[in-house]
Amino acid sequence: MSDHVTAITQLYARYSLSIDARDLESFRDCFTADGRMEITGGPAFAGAEGLARVIAGRTAESPRHENSNVLVDLVDDANATGRAYFVLRGGDGRPVGAGDYLDRLVRLDAGWRFVSRHITFSWRA
Prior knowledge:
Layout: H1 2-21, H2 24-28, E1 31-39, E2 44-46, H3 47-56, E3 64-76, E4 79-89, E5 95-108, E6 111-124
Parallel strand pairs: 1-6
Antiparallel strand pairs: 1-2, 3-4, 4-5, 5-6
């Protein structure tokens, strides 16, 4: 069990690091082939093309992601749900947004991946 939780926690970090680095390949590898990311009251991105739009919209000045309070609930050896808080920080280090992730995850041969990620902002600057 702890190996699964560690691997999923690493996935949360890989997501943030890859989106901030605008590393499309690593970002896509965080999701299943048909993975979906949706922002409450905003856009949804699905599949390889949709996820590519997330990275395409980022610049060196885009806010950086920080995760905390990652909570993983294993359904079985191949399925899990996860929740976490996030903070977005601007170039000056000040918070420019915060909210929650609510995720469904699956374990593939290549490791744990997000099936869906629902993002809800608590606030934005």
